[in-house]
Amino acid sequence: MVLVFFITWSCSSAQPIDPNACWQAIKQPPHECLESIKGIVHGHVHEIKKECCETVSTVSDLCWPIIFPSMPYIRFLLKGICTVKYSLH
């Protein structure tokens, strides 16, 4: 019950985010980063490059549901893969 309250409270206090800024952040060089991320969804984990992982680490957590609305946990998957593969935090 406390967890539900915390999740509701933290989401309701979140600042609105500009969808265009989210898309610009993920489309910045390297341009193939978005394609690499889409590849991960299909099981091609080895294809993500370090530069793409660095881009992933700079994208706001609030942007991921805008970029991939049907995959709410994609940011955790990507950050986990990047951490294991390149020791990025």
From TrEMBL:
One of its GO terms (biological process) is double fertilization forming a zygote and endosperm. Coiled coil: none annotated. GO terms for cellular component: extracellular region; vesicle. Residues 22-72 form the Prolamin-like domain. InterPro entries: Prolamin-like (IPR008502). The keyword Signal applies. This is Predicted protein. It comes from Arabidopsis lyrata subsp. lyrata.
